[in-house]
Amino acid sequence: MQFKTWGWAVAAAVALACGGDADPDAVELGDDELLHAAPLAQAEFALGGSTTVFALADADARVESERSGRAFGAHSRLRVDGDPRVESVLHFRLSGVGRVRHATLRVYATSASTDAPYAQTVQGGWSEEHVTWKSRPRAAADAPRYAASGAVRADSWVELDVSAAVQGDGDYDFLLATDSADGASFVARDSTLEALRPQLVVQTEPADCAAGATAQRVEVSWPVEGFYVLADSPEKDFLRKPELRVDGDPVRESYLAFQVDRQGRTLTRATLRLFATEGTRLAPELFRVQAGAWTQDSRTWATRPQTELTPLATRRSISGAGAVDYDLTDTLMVAEGPLRLELGLKTDSPDGVDFVSAYSPDTGSWPTLRLEYEEPCAAQ
Fold it and tell me: How confident is residue 378, by pLDDT bands cut at 50, 70 and 90?
């Protein structure tokens, strides 16, 4: 995998609320659990003829109807709520991406909600420093809503398909909102949780893909949730850690979840790729979580989701630090419609192994689900 950097984002300090009003979302919980390195503003992952562009928001802010003249652009949390009305706006800039095949807006939830938010495109011209409810950009009356489905889990990613709105290079402004009175908060770009800042992930067409021709594509996605559990600490959670740990003594297990939607396309191969930080004589086995077993509370050894008895994929050993692939082709070949793929990693061996998690600042080594498709090229 080639990894091309396009510029560095500057880590911003967490601003405190002005005056006597305290910002309910300003306190960062668990920041010491992450390594604090400045993330990439835009990165490009080249896989065969396909490219995945990973961009971070370069401006974002929430706006509140009940404090309509106040700006919250320097605060560490975005928020959406239907009562009282709270919305968030985000700006992304894409450069050199080519033709877009698919685009996903990702925001990391720090609180749960029974209803997922929606996104709409809005006109630019707003500034992070000054935007308020009164001056916020508004979506056109007929602007489509790009909605996520289902509930929002705390400490997980919410993904919204914004493919229809992202056409290529340029500036993109999104409104994030909800009609539900059960609101949710999300990590903002001014948070010290660098790995969890808002993201725009774009899958592009191969440069030599002529309209009507058939191409082999590789689509990359990152986990929406991931953590490990420890048998010796049955009530403790290990969320937002930079590693996923799997061991037989002491017993540790790791869990990952991905959102998958084949959209009727012909899948030729599916691979879970992890990056090990060392080798082991006996690699962990990969299991599928039992249907309905992973809940909002499945975060500790005592509450961990139960897996099926037969592993989905196995490996003999891991020779050293580097990429480790698990083949999931047979599992996802028969998958229908959008699904949440929930996986567990276990081993009986006392020779355990750590993998890089999606909370690490090492973006290029995050766990990925790689889906390879054979499908026609889009019209230019």
Answer: low
pLDDT in tens, 137-167: 999 989 999 998 889 999 999 999 999 999 9
Give strand pairing partners of 47.
50
Instruction: Give the burial class of 264: count Cβ atoms within 10 A of its Cβ; 0-12 exposed, 13-18 middle, 19 or more buried.
Output: exposed
Domains of the chain plus CATH, in order, are 2-208 (no CATH), 221-376 (2.60.120)
The rounded distance, in Å, linking the Cα atoms of 145 and 158 is 15
The amino acid at residue 242 is P
CB atoms within 10 A of CB 79: 24
Continuous segment of H or E residues that includes residue 329: helix 329-333
Residues 116 and 151: beta-carbon distance below 8 Å: yes
User: ∠ at Cα 222 (11, 306), nearest 5°?
Assistant: 120
Q: What is the pLDDT of residues 15-50, one digit of tens each?
A: 223 333 344 454 444 433 333 333 445 555 555 456
Strands 59-64 and 322-327: unpaired
Pairing of strands 243-248, 353-356: antiparallel
In whole angstroms, what is the distance from residue 193 CA to residue 107 CA? 12
CA atoms within 13 A on the CB side of 29: 10
C-beta of residue 154 within 8 angstroms of C-beta of residue 296: yes
Full-model pTM: 0.82
Cα distance between residue 72 and residue 101, in whole Å: 34
User: Which of 108, 92, 89, 112 lies closest to 195 in space, CA to CA?
Assistant: 108
- According to DSSP H, which parts of the chain are helical? 329-333
Q: Residue type at 296?
A: Q
